[in-house]
Design brief:
By secondary structure, the protein is mainly beta. It has four helices and 30 strands. Helix content is 7%, strand content 34%.
Length: 412
C-alpha cells in the first residue's frame, strides 16, 4: 500500500507553474513513485488492512490481527519476518473473530519467509537459503471459535507459543462453521523460532478453526517444529506439502474433526515423524480423515518414522503411499488405549502402499509396560484393506505442488 508524500518545495513549484501564464513550457517534474510508506508490521492490526504486492513487507515481533478486523494479502506478496526468540519471536496471529483473506495463485503465491532471504519482488524463491535453514522467525497462527477437546472440558485455551498475557492467543468455542477467511497458495519458509525451552512455533498453527474457512495449496519448508498442526477445529484442508521440518510433518491434536485431502510430507535430515496424531484432551470426541497422502522418508535422520498415534487418537488415514523409509521405521500405536481404538474401529487404516517386504510389521502396538509388540495376523489385515508391499499408484497427486519452493529446489 503506497501513499504519496510530495516534498513541500515540489508542491509549491507545481502550484506556481499552474497558476502563472508563460511562454516557457518547462515543467518541474514531480516523482510519480516516491518511497513507500513504512512497510513494517508491528503490534496489533485493529483496522482492515491490505498488504499489496508492490512492496516487501516486514514482520517485526508478534503481530496480531484483532477480532473484527480483516487482513487482505494480494497474490504475489512477500512478507519477510525479522529474527527474534521468546516473546520477541516474529509471528503473525489471526485472532478469534478476525479474518485473513490471503488468496494467492500458482503463478503468484504469497510467501512468508525470513528477512535473511534474498528473494526479491516478482520472484518466488531466493538463492541463499535452503531446506536446512530453520528457526529464522516464528510462523503463521490462525485461531477460531470452533470446538476443541480441551483439558477439563474448557471451551477455550491459549495457543502454544503465545504468552498467556496476550488474549489474542485464545482459541476455541462452539461454532464449528466459524469462518477465519482464506489461505490459498501460501508458502511458509524457515520458521519455528524458539519461544521457550523445547518449545517452538509451528509453520502453520490452526487452533479451533471452523469449516467456514478455506485452506488449500499450503507449503511449509524448513520449520524447526511441526509443519502444520491442528488443535481441534473442523476446517477442511487440501493440497498441503511439508518439507524438511524439524519435528513432525502433519500434527493433529484435541479432536480435530476435519478432512485433510491430498498432502505430502518429505522428511529432512533432522525430521521426526511424518504424522503425529493425538486424540481428545477432554470428553469431546472427534475423528479426523487423512485421504491421499504421500510420505517420503529420509535415511539420514535419527528419527524418520512413518507416524505416531497417541493419546486416544481417533480417525481414518487412507490411500497412503510411503517411500524411502528406514527398515526399522514404524507406525506406532502408542499405548493400549490407542490400540483398543484400532480394535474397536475408531482408528482406521485403509489402502497403504509401502516399499518394503514386510508391511504388516510396520505397525507396532505399545503395551502398558512400555514394550512394543507387532500387531499380529489375522486381526490387522482384516481391519485394513489392500496392504501392498510395493507400488507407487497410491498417495497424493504431486503435480499440484509444481508451484512450490519444494518442487523448485528438488524436494519433490
Amino acid at each position: 500500500m503506497r501513499k504519496l508524500f510530495l516534498p513541500f518545495m515540489a508542491i509549491a513549484a507545481t502550484l506556481f507553474i499552474t497558476g502563472c501564464s508563460s511562454d516557457d513550457d518547462t515543467v518541474i517534474p514531480v516523482d510519480p513513485d516516491p518511497d513507500p510508506v513504512n512497510n513494517v508490521l508491528t503490534g496489533n492490526i485493529a483496522a482492515d488492512m491490505t498488504l499489496t504486492s508492490d512492496v516487501i513487507w516486514e514482520l517485526s515481533g508478534r503481530v496480531a490481527v484483532t477480532s473484527g478486523t480483516t487482513l487482505t494479502i494480494e497474490p504475489g506478496t512477500i512478507i519477510k519476518a525479522l529474527p527474534g526468540t521468546g516473546a520477541n519471536a516474529s509471528a503473525l496471529i489471526i485472532a478469534r473473530g478476525a479474518k485473513i483473506e490471503a488468496n494467492g495463485t500458482a503463478a503468484s503465491p504469497i510467501i512468508f519467509t525470513s528477512i535473511a532471504d534474498n528473494i526479491q519482488l516478482g520472484q518466488t524463491a531466493g538463492s541463499n537459503l535452503n531446506e536446512n535453514d530453520r528457526g529464522l522467525w516464528g510462523g503463521l497462527i490462525v485461531l477460531g471459535n470452533a470446538r476443541a477437546s480441551l483439558s477439563g472440558d474448557a471451551t477455550e485455551n491459549q495457543i502454544e507459543g503465545i504468552p498467556a498475557s496476550d488474549t489474542n492467543g485464545l482459541y476455541g468455542g462452539n461454532d464449528d462453521a466459524d469462518d477465519s477467511g482464506t489461505l490459498n497458495y501460501i508458502s511458509i519458509r524457515h520458521g519455528g523460532a524458539l519461544i521457550g525451552e523445547g518449545n517452538e512455533i509451528n509453520g502453520l498453527t490452526l487452533g479451533a478453526v471452523g469449516n467456514g474457512t478455506t485452506i488449500s495449496n499450503i507449503e511449509v519448508v524448513a520449520n524447526v517444529d511441526d509443519g502444520v498442526e491442528w488443535f481441534g477445529g473442523s476446517v477442511n484442508c487440501s493440497n498441503i506439502v511439508v518439507w524438511a521440518q524439524g519435528d513432525d510433518g502433519l500434527d493433529i491434536d484435541e479432536a480435530y474433526s476435519g478432512t485433510i485431502t491430498n498432502s505430502a510430507v518429505i522428511l529432512g535430515n533432522i525430521s521426526d515423524h511424518a504424522l503425529e496424531i493425538d486424540g481428545p484432551a477432554g470428553s469431546l470426541e472427534g475423528k479426523f480423515t487423512i485421504d491421499k497422502l504421500t510420505i517420503i522418508g529420509n535415511l539420514n535422520t535419527e528419527g524418520g518414522e512413518y507416524a505416531d498415534y497417541r493419546d486416544n487418537a481417533m480417525g481414518t488415514t487412507k490411500n497412503v503411499l510411503a517411500l524411502n523409509f528406514k527398515s526399522d521405521s514404524d507406525v506406532e500405536l502408542d499405548n493400549n488405549a490407542v490400540a483398543q481404538n484400532f480394535l474397536d474401529g475408531d482408528l482406521v487404516f485403509e489402502n497403504w502402499i509401502l516399499d518394503r517386504d514386510n508391511p504388516n510389521q510396520v505397525f507396532l502396538e505399545g503395551t502398558a509396560d512400555g514394550e512394543v509388540q507387532i500387531i499380529v495376523n489375522p486381526d490387522f489385515p482384516t481391519r485394513a484393506a489392500n496392504w501392498t508391499a510395493t507400488g507407487n499408484n497410491g498417495g497424493a497427486d504431486l503435480n499440484v505442488f509444481s508451484w512450490t519452493f519444494t518442487s523448485l529446489k528438488g524436494g519433490l
